[in-house]
């Protein structure tokens, strides 16, 4: 039974996903038990019940955190330098997938820590909240390793369904439910259109896995006729619609600001990094897995010339960063501002995808890793301020630099890094992206890099506007000074250190990213 | 035109897809938008089944459709739960009137 043996081999490679799924089940069961026990008592003894709930919060946080750590360890425990397909080509295990799985597990871990004591999640809902987070982490890991259109769809829906529920999780606010509804409607349309594209691709080339499609496209005569070319282009555009929605690229970005504003702040932090990173992994694997020439990381197969997808991604990149940055200028809510900033960053990372080749993939991996650190940090500060003022409006940031010098300083570091100013990690990330584009050499590549540089200047304006409010404006009303002893502040401080350190010693990060720039094809 | 072939299925699929998109873009009732999404998903499913049957290479397309049906049900459950929650608080399911988030 050789096939069975191959399948069992596959299970060894998805141990992290199995751990995450298993821990999620445990958390859901515990949450259900806890709900029934509190329902029976109906707690007349208020203080004792509240103490118990706080204890349960700690319990769920610890279980999820331990599960994520275990998943992270087992991701590297059997060494994963080789590339293999698993489960008859449904999934693939290669450095690219391992890197992005580590990245999304790390992002979920930070989100779990950031959720400790967050007012957005009711105490008696903590169990379900953490269970959904773990399932979402599992989905993102599967998405990073998907190698087959069916697997891409299933993993993406797993991530999406959990995101819809978690977005609508803030029971205190109508805006949270509204955001959830908008998200599910936009998401449903995007995944439906993507499916239609997949069905066309299946019809044209008769395969669903990336390798089958690669061989079929290289050998097919369907691309010789204009009709076949148009059909293939349409299929690719439809699929790009679903993937672009996941990474929040223009014109599929409309959900992004509303959802970021409505969702519980710790979850917004995860949403801005995790699904985006997994989406980029699948974008690279789908396009470059199909169109790269075999055994070569730089050159594409000749059939790729008949479908202008590099041009399309380049145009989307330029439009995405421009729209994101210009709309961010007029935002007065910090979460919305960071939402448009995250759209703009998706545009920057798409520059790396456009450049392609080992250098381009390295730049994408490196940038997303740095983006994880700095953006999570910025959201940690927003979350800390949210706990004080119950608002993310830019007005509550007035004079923050004087009222809470630590929070002000941390926010300044993260905003400088998001702008891409040296000596922060954000500068290194941008440097690699621009270098990858310029080394490609063609006129349009350089033009895209110029658009990117122009956009960085625009970005400086609105990030500096926040700094201006924090340091140069006085608070309208006297506000109590800020106590800084909560988890969000601790986390922001811990994230600020690598933001600076990796701006000066970036070699280890660049090495890891270079290792990851190696996809099975 | 004596027997039904691949093209017929593809035409029906394309019509369903277009109707779904039009429904999503024009209807303001959240439940109606959800129906539009179901139309789009079923258009894709019909295409996959037709290609699987007439392309003749593999059953992969038919298996794919089973997954689509299950996930569409899960998505409908989540969407309807959110719609119900909004209906209870705001007494409306009109997506134009749930507009506290703007900008």
Topology:
The complex is a heterodimer of chains A (521) and B (103).
Chain A: H1 2-13, H2 15-41, H3 46-76, E1 84-86, E2 91-93, H4 95-114, H5 126-145, H6 149-167, H7 174-205, H8 210-219, H9 226-247, H10 255-262, H11 265-271, H12 274-291, H13 309-328, H14 334-355, H15 357-389, H16 400-403, H17 405-419, H18 425-440, H19 443-472, H20 487-504, H21 507-516
Antiparallel strand pairs in A: 1-2
Helix pairs in contact in A: 2-3, 2-5, 3-4, 3-5, 4-5, 4-11, 4-12, 4-15, 4-21, 5-6, 5-12, 6-7, 7-9, 7-10, 8-12, 9-12, 10-11, 10-14, 11-15, 12-14, 12-15, 13-14, 13-19, 14-15, 14-18, 14-19, 15-17, 15-18, 15-20, 15-21, 17-19, 17-20, 18-19, 18-20
Chain B: H1 6-26, H2 30-55, H3 60-90
Helix pairs in contact in B: 1-2, 2-3
How does this model look, in words?
Chain A is an all-alpha fold and 521 residues long. Chain A has 21 helices and 2 strands. Chain A has helices spanning 2-13, 15-41, 46-76, 95-114, 126-145, 149-167, 174-205, 210-219, 226-247, 255-262, 265-271, 274-291, 309-328, 334-355, 357-389, 400-403, 405-419, 425-440, 443-472, 487-504, 507-516; strands at residues 84-86, 91-93. The longest helix of chain A is centred in the C-terminal third of the chain and has 33 residues, at 357-389. Chain A is globular and about 70 Å long. By secondary structure, chain B is mostly helical. Chain B has a single domain, classed as Helix Hairpins, CATH 1.10.287.3510. In chain B, 76% of the residues lie in helices and 0% in strands. Chain B contains 3 helices and no strands. Chain B has helices at residues 6-26, 30-55, 60-90. The interface between A and B is large, with 43 and 47 residues.
Unreliable runs of chain A, pLDDT <50, ≥5 residues? Answer: none
Number of helices of chain B: 3
Overall shape of chain A: it is globular
Summarize the main sheet of chain B. Answer: none
How does the major sheet of chain A shape up?
Answer: 2 strands, antiparallel
- Proportion of β residues of chain B? under 5%
| Number of helices, where a helix is a run of at least 4 consecutive DSSP H or I residues of chain A | 21
How is the quaternary structure best described? heterodimer
């Amino acid at each position: 039974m050789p096939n069975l043996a191959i399948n069992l081999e596959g299970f060894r490679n998805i141990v992290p996903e199995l751990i995450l799924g298993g821990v999620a089940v445990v958390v859901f069961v515990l949450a259900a038990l806890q709900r029934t026990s509190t329902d029976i008592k109906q707690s007349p003894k208020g203080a004792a019940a509240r103490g118990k709930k706080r204890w349960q919060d700690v319990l769920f946080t610890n279980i999820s955190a331990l599960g994520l750590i275990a998943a992270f360890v087992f991701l590297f425990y059997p060494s994963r330098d080789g590339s293999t397909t698993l489960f008859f080509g449904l999934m693939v295990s290669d450095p690219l997938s391992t890197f992005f799985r580590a990245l999304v597990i790390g992002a979920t871990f930070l989100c779990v820590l950031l959720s400790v004591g967050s007012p957005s999640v009711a105490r008696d809902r903590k169990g379900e909240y953490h269970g959904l987070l773990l399932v979402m982490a599992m989905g993102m890991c599967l998405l990073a390793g998907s190698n087959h259109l069916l697997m891409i769809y299933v993993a993406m829906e797993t991530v999406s369904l959990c995101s819809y529920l978690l977005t609508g999780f803030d029971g205190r606010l109508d805006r949270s439910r509204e955001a959830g509804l908008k998200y599910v409607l936009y998401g449903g349309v995007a995944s439906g259109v993507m499916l239609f594209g997949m069905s066309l691709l299946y019809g044209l080339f008769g395969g669903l896995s990336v390798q089958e499609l690669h061989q079929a496209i290289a050998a097919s005569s369907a691309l010789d006729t204009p009709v076949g070319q148009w059909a293939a282009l349409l299929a690719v555009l439809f699929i790009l619609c679903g993937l672009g929605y996941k990474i929040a690229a223009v014109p599929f970005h409309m959900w992004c600001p509303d959802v970021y504003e409505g969702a519980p702040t710790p979850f917004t932090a995860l949403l801005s990094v995790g699904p985006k990173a997994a989406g980029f992994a699948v974008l690279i694997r789908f396009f470059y897995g199909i169109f790269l020439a075999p055994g070569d990381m730089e050159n594409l197969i000749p059939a790729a010339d008949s479908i202008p997808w590099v041009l399309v991604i380049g145009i989307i990149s330029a439009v995405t960063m421009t729209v994101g940055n210009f709309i961010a200028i007029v935002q007065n809510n910090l979460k919305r501002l960071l939402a448009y900033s995250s759209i703009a960053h998706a545009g920057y990372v798409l520059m790396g995808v456009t450049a392609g080749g080992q250098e381009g993939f390295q730049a994408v991996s490196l940038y997303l890793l740095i983006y994880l650190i700095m953006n999570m940090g910025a959201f940690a500060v927003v979350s800390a301020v949210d706990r004080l003022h119950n608002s993310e409006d830019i007005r509550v940031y007035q004079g923050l630099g004087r009222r809470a010098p630590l929070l002000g300083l941390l926010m300044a570091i993260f905003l400088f890094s998001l702008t891409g100013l040296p000596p922060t990690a954000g500068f290194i990330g941008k440097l690699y992206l621009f270098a990858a584009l310029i080394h490609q050499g063609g006129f349009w590549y350089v033009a895209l890099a110029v658009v990117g540089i122009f956009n960085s200047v625009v970005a400086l304006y609105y990030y500096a506007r926040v700094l201006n409010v924090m340091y140069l404006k006085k608070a309208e009303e006297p506000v109590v000074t800020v106590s800084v002893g909560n988890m969000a502040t601790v986390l922001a401080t811990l994230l600020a250190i690598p933001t600076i350190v990796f701006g000066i010693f970036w070699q280890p990060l660049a090495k890891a990213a270079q290792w990851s720039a190696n996809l099975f094809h | 035109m004596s027997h039904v072939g691949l093209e017929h299925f593809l035409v029906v699929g394309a019509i369903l897809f277009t109707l779904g998109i039009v429904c999503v873009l024009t209807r303001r009732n959240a439940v109606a938008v959800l129906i539009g999404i179901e139309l789009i998903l079923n258009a894709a499913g019909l295409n996959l089944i037709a290609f699987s049957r007439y392309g003749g290479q593999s059953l992969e397309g038919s298996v794919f459709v089973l997954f689509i049906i299950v996930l569409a049900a899960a998505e409908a459950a989540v969407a309807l739960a959110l719609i119900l929650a909004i209906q209870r608080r705001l007494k409306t399911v009109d997506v134009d009137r749930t507009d506290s988030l703007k900008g």
